[in-house]
TrEMBL record, chains A, B:
Keywords: Lyase, Pyridoxal phosphate, Transferase. The gene is nifS. It catalyses: (sulfur carrier)-H + L-cysteine = (sulfur carrier)-SH + L-alanine. InterPro entries: Aminotrans_V_dom, Cys_dSase-rel_unknwn_funct, Cys_dSase_SufS, Cysteine_dSase, PyrdxlP-dep_Trfase, PyrdxlP-dep_Trfase_major, PyrdxlP-dep_Trfase_small. It comes from Heliobacterium modesticaldum (strain ATCC 51547 / Ice1). It comes from the Bacteria. This is cysteine desulfurase. Belongs to the class-V pyridoxal-phosphate-dependent aminotransferase family. Csd subfamily. Residues 2-368 form the Aminotransferase class V domain. GO terms for biological process: cysteine metabolic process. GO terms for molecular function: cysteine desulfurase activity; lyase activity; pyridoxal phosphate binding. CDD domains: SufS_like.
Amino acid sequence: MIYLDNAATSWPKPDSVWEAVMHVGKNIGANPGRAGHQMAIDAGRAIYNARVAVARLFQFPDPLRVIFTLNATDALNLAIFGLIKPGDHVLTTRLEHNAVVRPLWILQGRGVEVTYLDGDEYGRISPEELKKNRKANTKALILNHASNVTGAMQDLETIAKAAKALDLFVIVDAAQTAGVFPISMASWGIDLLAFPGHKGLLGPQGTGGLCIMPGIELAPLRYGGTGSQSESEAQPLCLPDRFESGTPNTPGIAGLAAGIDYIHQIGREKIEDHETRLIKSLMQGLSELKGVRLIGPPVEEARAAVLSFTVDGMASEEVGFLLDKAFHIAVRTGLHCAPVAHRKSGTLTTGTVRLSPGVFTTKAEIEEVLASITQVVNEAK
Amino acid sequence: MIYLDNAATSWPKPDSVWEAVMHVGKNIGANPGRAGHQMAIDAGRAIYNARVAVARLFQFPDPLRVIFTLNATDALNLAIFGLIKPGDHVLTTRLEHNAVVRPLWILQGRGVEVTYLDGDEYGRISPEELKKNRKANTKALILNHASNVTGAMQDLETIAKAAKALDLFVIVDAAQTAGVFPISMASWGIDLLAFPGHKGLLGPQGTGGLCIMPGIELAPLRYGGTGSQSESEAQPLCLPDRFESGTPNTPGIAGLAAGIDYIHQIGREKIEDHETRLIKSLMQGLSELKGVRLIGPPVEEARAAVLSFTVDGMASEEVGFLLDKAFHIAVRTGLHCAPVAHRKSGTLTTGTVRLSPGVFTTKAEIEEVLASITQVVNEAK
């Protein structure tokens, strides 16, 4: 089987990830931070190690402000509902996932103003556009680093710095880039970074998080037991406790730490280079096929390892079905939880076939995929 | 090592639990419900099987209304914030965990009235007390099935039926009983049942859920991608999608299903009987020790497999430290995220030493624990 659905969940994982999950589950499977016995202390240490790994990867100054959540959606909800209040104005883009669009839609019903910046042909925004749309009550810019539909990447460093210069909070959805592309929270001026654990960071599903820069105050999304200040009905103010009520996914978080260690070992730059080469091969190969329309920026421009396309006269689901059944190639088809981005790329009614290679995808697999898609497209004619 | 901290997280787990986690992670590690390829379908099926297992255990009619969450706290936040609105009045008990107390404290600041029912000496409430405290705006009763501090159990069937007769919504925190004691949502009249996956259900940390009876409408706690109705900015109305935004913890949930299967295989009643015998042995043994004060109902009355005690002249942390370091016995000490319950039992300043045996605890271990505690207490004199 050839797996090209890494934009949804990376697969397979490094062996060390499952070894870490098993080690924690079987040997130190206690509740971290809730007791003084050795196994609980070891479990707490496994989670702390993961905070350090995340902080290092994103050049983030304080591991105790790395908050672990169920997934990136959970982290984005915490960031958005925690920061934005009625009367605020928010700038965002037309490339956002429903993890941003749906919370904003709820906030619009509560008196928050939202402006969807048009950006260029591919939805990429500019400092000028930020400046032009900024109002007296503009509180934050919320944007993803790369679109999960088109692969289009924002020039995050430039945009984040421009937003900071306008005194905006910068909330970033790094779902498609974390672990593969460089992100420097401190030097770029990112205030809140939401990341999934189970995509580019190579951890298990059930993990994700939010990095909250020092000085940023948020209302929690969940309240409850934290193993700290247990005598108080009020949620603790200290981090990470304030935002981590209830028992965390200790084995999953240990697996996430192993995933990030793997990235550090082989080098993030090498992964970026590898995935970029593969996606460019796919683009070059598919661009030679008649009836295939590639979505998103041209091959010479920056993109995450995501390539969407449509085939004239074929539903995207049909292409995906044939690839799965006849060629054992796993892709995603249809709409990708991002209606605004589909509207922007003109694929809201057709959906797309999405190919997303990962760190373990080989060049030979990409060639086989190209040959298979060629066959599907030619037989359809 | 003897592990008596099962009330925080059960350990060890059945081997089948980790086998299920590994199988899903390594063989069908795709994103469930987000693609049409075989591996995604298999992942979706693993989660559906878990819904069926949960529904069967709690005699709950609709597997699609079993919502998986990060933990029981997450589930309780969804239930409480989703149902209770400003102007409502809520009845609750003095045995609640901070997963209930802290959300209610926030709601009190938003115009919700909360009455903490005193109950009897051990905090157990009665139908009469419900009736007496019910007001025109009383919307719900929120109660745990058993206290995580004292082990005191509510007569849930009687209380839930009485609350339904008063036209109240019944929200139950089954953190200390799910998987061990009988719970019948349909016939007892429980509307919302929150459960942890990693305690009595024997699943991995990072799992939990909320069963939402048909007809109950809640506001979501999180909004985002669901893999369904992706063209819409509005959160889908159908369940489970409405409450499960973002990628679920598929391997963890598969492990949870295996944990529940294990319970069904050996029989929940047998586990209840086993844990009850062990806790009674502990109570009998400790009651013979001078200077030891047992917290909670007497030995002949119902209690969950949780026993708290204090030792005259010793801090509970000191007792726990000695048990861990000198005897390799893991217990929890201090406050147990339930200040109201500690106040009720007179242990808010001292904390307690808490012993919580599990399905894999043996009679021989209990005897060893009793001998060790005897030694600790005698040497302290």
